[in-house]
Amino acid sequence: MFNCIQCEDNIFRNLIDGQWIISKNEEFIEITSPIDGSLIGKIPAMAKEEVDFAFESSKAAQLKWKSIPVSERAEILYKAADILLQYSDELTEIMIREIGKDKKSSKSEISRTADFMRFTADTAKNMSGESIPGDSFPGFNRNKISVVTREPLGVVLAISPFNYPVNLSASKIAPAIVAGNSVILKPATQGSLCGLYLARVFEEAGIPKGVLNTITGKGSEIGDYIVTHPGVNFINFTGSTEVGTKISRITSMVPLLMELGGKDAAIVLEDADLDLTASNIVAGGYSYSGQRCTAVKRILVVNKVADKLVEKVKEKMNNLKVGNPLEKDVDIVPLINSKAADFVCELIKDASDKGANLIVGGNREGNLIYPTLFDNVTLDMRLAWEEPFGPVLPIIRVRDKDEAIEIANKSEYGLQSAVFTENINDAFYIADKLDVGTVQVNNKTERGPDHFPFLGVKASGIGTQGIRYSIESMSRPKATVINLTR
């Protein structure tokens, strides 16, 4: 099934207007594995003219696609979900090699994506418009009725990140197309192979030509061009705050949906179940080496239980498995590239130089950073504020819940926070005051279930995701007013 996307010499093609094509300029970007540096594929570095053709194709296809009944659009998603699971083993292997994710997490991402597609199809079929009588507003009578339906926006530009290359591509594509839009997928360079395989899944499921196109290329050459292209009607982006901020600055009159960075805090009160708390901190902070926007990234613990918590976290960290995900099931894998590993090491060095107490880890082998825990991190340390996107956690000791809230809210980010306490009143007190999109009570910060609202505030994002919310974001109300004659 996947033969069409790849030709000789490990060169991959893009899906444009229903055809798998190689860039005419014959320039390619090499994709090497973060595990061992081996070459796993070459993707086209598309030129601006080819980008233009992708947009033209998407525009033309969307005009027809929006007239297709929702039930038929939904059927594409059901079929895509089935095909995705059918090729789960092959896609898992690609994901492990391309982004270094462990086998268990890779398989989970694929099955979760299939569930996402099915739930999206179900949700779309059960969404309905409304009719509004005129006499519900003062001064009007029943001779006016507004019939409100939802209309697609047009061409959606979906830009996905490396860390969930299947799920965070599909979570943009599925709501967009079921709402009647066409989609241009621009996957992260490291993650492009997974994105192209996903596009092939949708093609096999019967998506019409041009409704889903893919773009690969160098951000320095086409990045600004695609987000400012006159053919874009909506941008759905997941990635760094730096890039997201730039996109929001250079675009004009184009609606945005963005999930950006985070510095998610786990606030631990003195009555917390410390075994539960430690388990969630380790799972939330170190899975996939912390390369997740919703990873636990700092621990704000009241002094009274800090020593006990440190010991329990340290003990549970001993169970983390470190190594090569191609050889065994592991928790800690090499980071996506040497630049990412260098940055994490900078934060580790800064914390050490300024007096933080290194409890576990701190060492590096190539791009592999061993799970690291610091205690007594102070607010002058970079690790207290910057997002490492790696397996390092700071413990910041606080006097009480109000100091924890104050520190948490000083962050430029506002994605999620977690609160660990047995007191429901304290949980609601803290949740009410935290300036974040989601507060988890007695659980690690995480995305999902996927029909829950998912959003960030401040530098963590724009707009609300979650299946129904994403469909609504990528469509608009349209009112038709019926004026009745008497």
Keywords:
38% helix, 486 residues, 2 domains, alpha/beta, globular, six-stranded mixed β-sheet, oxidoreductase, Aldehyde Dehydrogenase, Chain A, domain 2, Aldehyde Dehydrogenase, Chain A, domain 1, EC 1.2.1.9, glyceraldehyde-3-phosphate dehydrogenase (NADP+) (non-phosphorylating) activity, 14 helices
Task: Tell me the radius of gyration.
Answer: 24 Å
Report the CATH superfamily of the largest domain.
Aldehyde Dehydrogenase, Chain A, domain 1
For the termini, the CA-CA separation is: 62 Å
- Average pLDDT metric: 96
Please give the count of helices: 14
Backbone shape = globular
- Looking at the overall shape, the CATH architecture of the largest domain is 3-Layer(aba) Sandwich
Which topology of the largest domain does CATH recognise? Aldehyde Dehydrogenase, Chain A, domain 1
Largest sheet: 7 strands, mixed
Strand portion: 15-25%
Helices and strands: which structural class?
alpha/beta
What are the low-pLDDT stretches, counting only 5+ consecutive residues below 50? none
Provide the helix percentage.
Answer: 25-40%
